[in-house]
Amino acid sequence: MADFPHLSRRSFLNRSAAVGGLLVVPGLLSACSKTDAGAADGEGALDKLRKQGFVRVAYANEAPYGYLEGKELKGEAPTLHREIFKALGVDELRPTLSEWDGLIPGLQAGKYDVVSAGMAITPERCANALFSEPEFISPTALMVKKGNPKKLTDLASAKAAGVTVGVMSGAVEASYAKGAGIAEGKIKTLQKPQDGADAVKGGRIDAFLLTGISLRWLARTNPETEVTEAFVPELDGVQQFSPGGAVFRQGNEDLRDSFNRELKKIVSDTSRYVSLLQEYGFGATEIPPATLKTADLCKG
C-alpha cells in the first residue's frame, strides 16, 4: 500500500485544476511527446479489448486512488474502472505500476490502455491525452479532535472561532485558508498528512485542512480524530472542484466515449457510487456536478 508522503505530492498536483482557477505545474509533461504511439488503432479499440478479454491499466501506487495490496489492485480508480469495463464486456484489469510523471508518456507509448490513478484534469494533460468526464471531485474537509470540541464545519467557522489550522507544505490548502480570511499566524505548515493528524491529537493545531478523501483515509489509523463534512472552498469567488478522471490515448475516442456512457450511469446513481467507493473515503460529496464537463476543464 502506498505511503501517505505520496499524498503530499498528490495534494499539489491533483488539485492543480479548479474551474476557472488553473495552477500550472511547469515541466509536468516535459517528457510527453505529441506523437501518439498506437493512436492508429483507435477505431475499434473497445472491440479489441473485448476480444482479448482484458484492459491494461496503469496505476501509481497511491492510496486511496490506485494501489496494490498484496496481489490485488485496489482504490477508487481501479474499483470504478473495473465496474465500467465489465459493463463494456471486458472482465479483467491488468495492472502496470508507473511513476506518476511517467503515466501519460507510458500511455502514449502504448504500454497500457488506460491510466487508473485518479489523475486531475488539466489543460496541459488534455493536450497530450484524452480524459473521461470527471469521475470524482475533491472537496475539502477539516480533521479535528474526536467530538469536534470547537464545533468547526468549514473555513468560515474556523475563522470565526479564531482557531489554528494546519496545511500541507506546498499544497493549495494554504491559499484556501488565506482566501477565507484566516490570519497567516493562525496557519501552520506541516510536511505530511500524519504530521497533521499528530498535531491535531497533540493540540498544536485545532484543525487540519486537506481533501475529505485523504482525511477520511487518514482517520482510519487515527481514531482519536474525526473528519467534518466535506465542503467546496472558493478562491476569488470560484469554486475549487478539483476533478479527476480516467485517461486514454489520443485516437481512442470511441473507447473514451463508451467509458463515459457507463461512468454517467454510476455518477448519476448516488447509492451505487457510494457503495462502490466508500471503502476508499469517497462519498456523495465526491460525486461530480452534472454541469462539470471535461471539455470546459481542458480549456482552462
From TrEMBL:
Pfam families on file: SBP_bac_3
Q: Which UniProt keywords apply?
A: Signal
Cross-referenced InterPro entries, in alphabetical order?
Answer: Ectoine_EhuB (IPR014337), Solute-binding_3/MltF_N (IPR001638), TAT_signal (IPR006311)
Name the domain of life: Bacteria
- Residues forming coiled coils: none
Residue stretches making up the Solute-binding protein family 3/N-terminal domain: 54-284
Supply the name of the protein.
Answer: Ectoine/hydroxyectoine ABC transporter substrate-binding protein EhuB
User: What lineage, starting at the top, does this entry show?
Assistant: Bacteria, Bacillati, Actinomycetota, Actinomycetes, Kitasatosporales
